[in-house]
């Protein structure tokens, strides 16, 4: 694609930054082994991504956050396909990464969270404060109770998904600022209860 038209609204410095980011991203791709399907999906995804990102006033900052994420998932075709086949998910990714470096970093570290972008009804509506314990209990039922490693991984996944929803709702304004700390507290308490319960299962109840 020709970038010049979509970069016209940016200052000269910003245009240079965007072009440098794209060049650096291409160099990173050259260092990785990407299969034919991955290349095909990436070739379809990037024009749409660049068109949307470069139209923004904060194109350079947003692109730097998203390319850092893409470098981490570029060999994992499933995630590229998600962003390529679901334009709404791509738009959510762009807006959230633009709004928050924390979310961009979180998604880069835990790409499994990209699945959360598929459903805006849950992405921007965090769990009710009094339902975190039950939600976590139901989530852990998917994992064998005697598999401690999988139980811990499920706890991490649940925590990260809930943190993403809280942050997304805060950014979107669907969760009042005063309620954010309430949700973080209830989530933390649910996590502690679950960890204690797992410790009892593994080691037995403490003697009184």
Outline of this structure?
With 208 residues, the chain is mainly alpha-helical.
Describe the protein.
The chain is globular, with a radius of gyration of 20 Å. It has 11 helices and no strands. It has 208 residues and is mainly alpha-helical. The chain starts with a helix and ends in a 5-residue tail after the last helix. It folds into 2 domains: 4-110, Four Helix Bundle (Hemerythrin (Met), subunit A); 129-203. The model has no long low-confidence stretch (mean pLDDT 91). InterPro entries: GlnE, GlnE_rpt_dom, NT_sf. One of its GO terms (molecular function) is [glutamate-ammonia-ligase] adenylyltransferase activity. Its EC number is 2.7.7.42. This is Glutamate-ammonia-ligase adenylyltransferase.
Shape: globular
The number of distinct helices, counting runs of at least 4 residues, comes to 11
Number-wise, the strands total 0
CATH architectural group of the largest domain: Up-down Bundle
Low-confidence stretches are none
CATH class of the largest domain: Mainly Alpha
Remind me, CATH topology of the largest domain?
Four Helix Bundle (Hemerythrin (Met), subunit A)
Largest sheet: none
Element string (H = helix, E = strand):
HHHHHHHHHHH
The first-to-last residue Cα distance is 70 Å
User: Using only CA atoms, what is the Rg?
Assistant: 20 Å
Number of domains: 2
Average residue pLDDT:
91
